Amino acid sequence: MKTQNFKIEAQQSRVEWIGKKVTGAHNGTIAIKEGNFIFNDGKLSGGNVSIDTTSIIILDVTDPATNAQFAGHLASDDFFSSESFPTASLEITSVRQHSETSYHVEGNLTIKGITHSIGFDLKTTVTGETLTASGKIIIDRTKYDMKFRSGNFFTNLGDTLIYNEFELNVNLVAKAI
């Protein structure tokens, strides 16, 4: 069995987030700290990714003061508690291949020290020593003690309600090591 390890190139990779609320949505990016993918006989078999929760950038709020206030709120205990938990992580626990380049990935996602299993589809391409991987991960923030303005925990929120699920759209580049 041939095993190949691919180290994620954080600077070449991009993770975009989208959070939705009754009156619209916000979006931005968050940086990868480190990670890798393991392939056995040319097929994805495992890996892990660490995200830097202190790196959250908001792209749709252009006023600098409002942007800074919003970023501070996302870093606060209402959301990511970035000072106490500067990283979030995903450990791949199982992989089911759909096609030559498409997989269903199951893993343990840890945010704020709280771990839950999560599943998502991932497309991969290996060209020489370079791996690219892309997918969309839907996360229920309330499972990770992010209850701020959630309809599951608060009533009469009206148009201030924030939906429980947020999306991460990942586009990763990794190099064989």
UniProtKB/TrEMBL annotation:
Coiled coil: none
Official protein name in the record: Polyisoprenoid-binding protein YceI
All copies of domain Lipid/polyisoprenoid-binding YceI-like, residue ranges: 5-175
InterPro entries: Lipid/polyisoprenoid-bd_YceI, TTHA0802/YceI-like_sf
